[in-house]
Amino acid sequence: MKKNKKSIFFPILVNLHKLPCLVIGGGSVALRKVTTLLNFKIRVTVIAPNICKPLKDLSKKNKIKIIQKSYHKDLLKKFDIIFCATDNPQINQTVSKDCKNENKLLNVADVPEFCDFILPAVVKRGDLTIAVSSQGRAPFFAKEIKDKIDHIFPSYYEDIIDLAGNFRSIIMSNKKYNSPKIKEKAFTKFFMIDWKKVLKNYGKKKAHSYLLHILNDL
What we know:
Number of helices: 7
Strand order of the largest sheet: 3-2-1-4-5
Helix content: 40-55%
Shape: elongated
CATH superfamily of the largest domain: NAD(P)-binding Rossmann-like Domain
Structural class: alpha/beta
Number of strands: 7
Distance between the termini: 52 Å
C-alpha cells in the first residue's frame, strides 16, 4: 500500500460487519472513532495503556473490547482495518510503517498522508447515509457542511427511507411493474407524496399501507 502525498480518496461504502477493526488510542479522538464505528454495527477493539471512562463504559456494556496495554505490531495480525487515534506522532509513524509491512488498511486521525482511507463527516438517518469529505484537507469545513445537511434531513427521514426501500422492493419483485414506464411513474408518484405529513397524521404503520394505495392507482 504505497503512500502518495497527493492521494485522492475514492468515496465508497464498505461492509465492515465481518471485518474486525482495531482502534489504537484511548482518549477523546479514539472515542469519536469508536462511536462512529458502532453506529454501523462494527466490531471494535481498542488498545491503549490509558483508557478514558466513556470507552470503559462501552466495554462494560459489551459494545467494544478493550486491550489495556501499549501498542505492539503483533496486534495487527488479528485485524483487517486499523484506526490510529493518538496524539503521539512517533506512534502514528510506527503504526503507519507496520501497517504498510502487514498490508493492513490504515486511517490515522488528522494525518492524511499516513492514511489508506479517510472518514467523511456523516449524516445518518436509518439506511440513509450522507457523507461529506474535503479529501482530508479541511475537515472543519466538511463538518460545517455536514451540520447544514443535518438540519435539512430531520430524524423522520429514517422512516421515509424505510418506506422508500419497501416501495422499491414491492415494485422490483412484482412482474406487474416490469415496464420501465410504470416504474418511472411509480417512483414519480412516491416523490409527490408529502411523507412528513403522512407520518405525522397517520404514523409509520399506516404510512406503509399508503404505499399499496399508490401502487393500486398505477
